[in-house]
Amino acid sequence: MENPSQLRERTIGAFIQQYPKIPCVIPSSPEYAALRATFIIDNPAVPIAIVRPQNADDVSTIVSFCVDHEIPFVVRSGGNNLFGKSQVHDALTIDMRDIKYCRVDYSKRFAEIGGGILAGKLVEDLSNAGVMTASGTVDFIGYVGWSTYGGYGPFSGNFGYGFEQILGAKVVNWKGEILDADLELLKGIRGAGGSFGIIVEMTIKVYPLTKILTGIMLYDASDVEATVVNYCQGLQKLRDEGFPRQLCVAPLFLHTGDGLKLASHFMWSDDDDTAGFKWLEKVSKLGKVLYNPVRKTTVLDGMSDFKTIIPPDGRASVNTVSLRALTKEVTAVMAKYVQRMPRYAGNGFAIHLGPKPSDSSLKNSVFGATESHLMLELLATPRSEEGVEESRKWGAEFLRGLLETNPKNILPTTYINLTPPGRTTLDQIYGANFSFVMALKRKYDPKDVLRLAVPFSYIAATDVQDTREGSHL
After folding, report:
1. Are 116 and 148 members of one domain?
2. DSSP string covering 26-73, please?
3. Which residues form the FAD-binding PCMH-type domain (predicted)?
4. What global pTM score does this model have?
């Protein structure tokens, strides 16, 4: 008698025969390992197959087939979910990366992009058209996943978060129907991503920008405690005095093969270079600068800077806290745990400045962070297997130390893309929008076909789960 896995494998064989024009690979295929690879290299999941739609109609066909044959599926683009949720054992992977077009409108005010486009290709295509949009800094991140769950990045102050760029979307629902998202569905997509259907296309805002001032400065970190305290308290002082919207400052304390580094990303996204260099001078005084490569260049070239400091893979144990301010109490905790960071390449700690979203954006989204804040990223992500347990312990203790600081300084919501299973609930993440999100989930996925979608696949709805209201509807 066939077990469920064998039955699914046989069913996938039928799919390949029935739809030969839709690329599909199985575990025995020579290209399977490369297509399965994600940022998380220790994820043991073995999908029953990886299917690669070429357009929205292919996605529709795949979803209908999966529903008819009761095959669970997961959707991936960049494959960078830090909890391994872009690949699920014994499920079908719908790999969106071949749907990667970018069409800039003649007005150069918006662009239509494919649901599988990666950030690097998007930036390249937009740059060729003389425009830009809000994006992250890592070229292998999937843009749809990055933007729909929030989308922090160097343009957040100037253009807004990733979710604030979304003007429209085409979605394949649980029935396999291709829909143009209405205002209600768009509100859910802006913050809850692909929870309600597979996003095969988005329309996003673009802006007339081709050159920026950017670079990753290195500071002397030989005295760890003094470096952390001086830099972070100085950063908070500049923030209190008023950050211009064009400015991005994003510090990363990272262990490399050469020891601990303080790498601080500086970016000025405006044509007024004089003002940009004045702010560069201020930021340079946050510590002893060892290396300053800030220059006027393209966004695409600026993104290439991160290839030297961001590893292409890792063994991930990440977490996050969002704070209202870098208080002396908080910076003391940071200094303590940066000093204790296990000496394995890949471990790190980053700070992202999150501006307050516009009132319109908050009204038309479910994004949980409704005020100006700092999103802290705790990276217990050693590239060496040897350092995994020590790094995990450090990350857990660091998180505990931060959460023991003044609770009035801590936002109740967390950033979904960095929030691990069991840490919080959807009720806390979405706050006042929680009931709306759950109602939208019931409306657009009544059969729980998208049960493997982030964040419903691993974050409980409330502290006391209800099978009608819980993470699996």
Report:
1. yes
2. -TTSTTHHHHH--SBTT-----SEEE--SSHHHHHHHHHHHHHTT--E
3. 43-209
4. 0.95
